[in-house]
Amino acid sequence: MEKQELTPRADRSALRLGLVTQLSNPKIAVFFGAVFIGIVPHDAPVWALALIMAMIFLDEMLWYTFVGRVFSLSYVRSLYGSAKRWVDRAFSALIAAFAARIVMT
């Protein structure tokens, strides 16, 4: 089987793919919905809600920009590729432990 050469996406294409991926991911909405219900008072002023949303947007944008830039480096991709199997197993065990703890309580 011949190895296919990957060509980098244009900036607009990469931005569009990232935006569509994030907007179609319901986990973020569920997570922040739970945070809002549990922490933000129901009578919070609109300016406070807008400020919270702006902070969440800035935090998400900075984090995913950082992750994207770091994982665009070939040696980081290579290092992660060699450790991926063990990273996946470790986090799977961690999630299973959290689930077991929830079941036991």
What does this structure look like?
With 105 residues, the chain is mainly α. The protein folds into two domains: 13-72, no CATH class; 74-105. The protein has four helices and no strands. It has helices at 11-23, 26-39, 46-71, 74-104. The chain is flat, with a radius of gyration of 19 Å. The model has no long low-confidence stretch (mean pLDDT 87).
Mean pLDDT: 87
Strand content: under 5%
Rg from alpha-carbon coordinates: 19 Å
Say what oligomer this is: single chain
Overall 3D shape = flat
Quote the distance from N terminus to C terminus. Answer: 51 Å
List the helices and strands and how they pair.
Layout: H1 11-23, H2 26-39, H3 46-71, H4 74-104
Structural features:
single chain, mainly alpha, 4 helices
